[in-house]
Design a protein that fits this description.
The strands form four sheets. This protein has a four-stranded antiparallel sheet with strand order 1-2-4-3. α6 packs across α8 and α13 packs across α14. The chain is of the alpha/beta class and 588 residues long. Among the domains are: 84 residues, 2-Layer Sandwich (Gyrase A, domain 2); 88 residues, no CATH class; 118 residues, Orthogonal Bundle (Isoleucyl-tRNA Synthetase, Domain 1). The two termini are 34 Å apart. The protein binds one RNA strand of 77 nucleotides through α2, β9, α13, α14 and β13.
RNA sequence: GCGCCCGUAGCUCAGCCGGAUAGAGCAACGGAUUUCUAAUCCGUAGGUCAGGGGUUCGAAUCCCUUCGGGCGUGCCA
């Protein structure tokens, strides 16, 4: 099913071409107000200006040349030269019926130019527990990966975890001290059970105990050379950490799996080559004792060229080195057409420089797209970076647990008679959904204020609003049997649809726009376009629900209403659960 | 100093390539339930889109500038 907005764009552009002899964009948009119709074309005014003709007159000619009666009522010309379009009932009905036959994709077409897309997201530093700072990259990246997937691209998720570096020396040192002989995984868990505390203690010892610090440095050397027990310790720590964050991913319905892990350690033995290559091709030079590359256009405080440092004066490599190795790997081994990095906005300059270096080195060219998808900081209710009352970082697990707990209280208040197990599962879906949705629904570039009270108020533009709309539809379906309504039978037997209420049409018009919403969201990697659509859809449904009885509707009205319910439920479920990773519930 | 992001209703935020009278939610006020879940719906009120200038048929949106906030700016990631 071709996107309606695209069809309209093409038809009107064609008419413009016919009239003016030139190519102009029709600039079709959803109408600003219902009284202007359903869609409007704004392109005539710009075209008239360029062609130096009267816009109203041009609009008349365009409308006269326009072949569109299969889709719209007679177009109207308004204002300085807008062309207003109103969809025909017959067209709406045809689209709905087409969606009805496409259970999986709701009429959303796959891309005709599939690509290999690498999405790099989440990337926790595994020495520590995941905290709120990891939330945005994890879920925004996941939504991007899901959307690209759905559009038919080959998506390669990459979890670039921080599993290498000097901090692992001190962790191994403490590990060594705590447990000299690792026999199986159980004692490992015991030692690392409170990973955060383990890290803090190691850090404390490292800073205060000279002998311990020496052991830590010795451990780093051992890690690199592979001598001694250090690799084994390291593996235990890494494995234990992975267990921890895979648990969080599962809680969050994030699609990252073990196979997506490709941490810093993976690139460790490639770093020397990267530096060597860049030296050989003359890009990397020594400066103040470090090996640097100076991409054009970047300056430091003194206005001098700013370097990307790839090797410190002591010989050690840096994260820029690892990032370059990863970039090269993704292009050359994973054959990426597009690489999307989902990290916070503070790293914008780092990635800009990185991309510049990759281009200088000839690793990428104009056929490969490198995107840094940025997002703002999560703030507490006082507007400062989000912390616990005592000033510590908030652990992701604690935050999610609290959300679920709060949701459980609401479920208990609203629906105390449900079985305990079902109440618990609703609380999970609602609580986690609320946290994710609050993040998704904001423009990712702005900092946003995290507030349990707001996101779990469960009124207005929140995940529960949509989950509720979905649950109401499911409730209708459950009641249907008792009222001798055979939904499946009626849906299968529909041949014509009759609109008798504006609320039906408003809902239908939104339903057929799902493809457009996804397209906008994926094009700019902005999940909030998708949440905005789903909210509009749910609102249209709620209006429809209060205006139009379904099961009691007469035989003429009921097929359409059943179809609208079914398509709405499927769209909400698909949007929430397949694209945003937010669970839906049958009852709430 | 330079660079990036941000400034929209009392609060939290949308506003897609410049389009018609700038939109939601929360809070406030008033209404709606013998009928499929009221976690809902309908209505009222609320704005110098930080200020100024420019581009043009048209600017919250693009450009310049001032103010205010955040972040980054050579060996952390």
């Amino acid at each position: 099913m071709k996107r309606l907005a695209d069809i309209l764009e093409q038809r009107i552009s064609a008419a413009l071409q016919k009239v003016t002899g030139q190519a102009f964009a029709a600039m079709v948009r959803v109408a600003a107000e219902p009284k202007f119709g359903d869609y409007q074309a704004n392109g005539v005014m710009a075209a008239a200006k360029q062609a130096k003709t009267n816009p109203r007159q041009l609009a008349e000619q365009v409308v006269a040349a326009l072949d569109i009666q299969d889709i719209c009522e007679k177009p109207e010309i308004a204002g300085p030269g807008f062309i207003n379009l109103r969809l025909k009932d017959s067209f709406l009905a045809a689209r709905l019926l087409e969606m009805n036959t496409d259970k999986d994709r709701l009429g959303v077409e796959k891309t005709d130019t599939p690509q290999t897309v690498v999405v790099d997201y989440s990337g926790p530093n595994i020495a520590k527990q995941m905290h709120v700072g990891h939330l945005r990259s994890t879920i925004i990246g996941d939504c991007i990966a899901r959307m690209y997937d759905f559009e038919g691209h080959t998506v390669i998720r990459q979890n670039h975890i921080g599993d290498w570096g000097t901090q692992f020396g001190m962790l191994c040192a403490l590990f060594d001290e705590r447990f000299l002989q690792i026999s199986d995984v159980t004692p490992t868990r015991k030692i690392l059970g409170e990973l955060e505390a383990f890290y803090i203690e190691a850090k404390k010892r490292f800073d205060s105990d000279e002998q311990f610090a020496n052991t830590a440095r010795f451990a780093v050397a051992g890690l690199h050379s592979g001598e001694g027990p250090w690799r084994t310790y390291w593996e235990s720590i890494v494995r234990e950490s992975e267990r921890h964050y895979c648990e969080i991913y599962e809680k969050l319905s994030v699609t990252l799996k073990d196979k997506d892990i490709r941490g810093e350690s993976f690139y460790a033995d490639k770093l020397a080559d990267v530096v060597q290559t860049l030296k050989q091709n003359g890009l990397a030079v020594e400066s103040e004792g470090a090996i640097c590359i100076f991409p054009e256009g970047f300056k430091n405080k003194e206005g001098e060229p700013l370097p990307v440092i790839i090797q410190k004066s002591d010989g050690a490599f840096l994260y820029a080195t690892t990032d370059l190795a990863a970039l090269q790997f993704r292009v050359q081994e994973l054959h990426a057409d597009t690489i999307i990095y989902v990290t916070d906005a503070r790293q914008a300059q780092h990635f800009a420089m990185l991309f510049a270096v990759a281009k200088m080195a000839g690793w990428t060219d104009d056929t490969i797209e490198l995107m840094h998808i940025t997002f703002g900081t999560m703030l507490g209710e006082d507007g400062t970076p989000f912390k616990t009352r005592t000033g510590g970082t908030v652990k992701l697990k604690d935050l999610l647990d609290e959300a679920v707990q709060r949701a459980a209280a609401v479920v208990e208040a609203k629906n105390p008679d449900l079985p305990a197990e079902q109440k618990a599962s609703i609380a999970r879906a609602v609580g986690i959904g609320a946290v994710k949705y609050a993040d998704y629904s904001n423009n990712r570039n702005s900092d946003y204020i995290f507030s349990f009270d707001k996101m779990l108020a469960m009124e207005g533009n929140t995940a529960p609003y949509m989950q509720y709309a979905y649950a109401r539809i499911k409730s209708i379906e459950r009641k249907a049997a008792g009222k001798d309504v055979d939904i499946e039978g009626e849906l299968a037997g529909i041949t014509t649809l009759t609109f008798t209420d504006e609320a039906e049409k408003d809902l239908a018009k939104l339903l057929i726009r799902y493809d457009q919403a996804i397209d906008a969201a994926v094009r700019e990697c902005r999940p909030n376009y998708l949440t905005g659509y789903l909210y509009d859809l749910s609102q249209a449904f709620s209006r429809f629900y209060s205006a139009c009885p379904v099961l009691q509707a007469d035989a003429r009205q009921r097929p359409l209403r059943l179809l609208l319910c079914d398509l709405t439920a499927r769209t909400i479920r698909h949007g929430l659960s397949e694209l945003l990773g937010i669970e839906v519930v049958e009852q709430m």
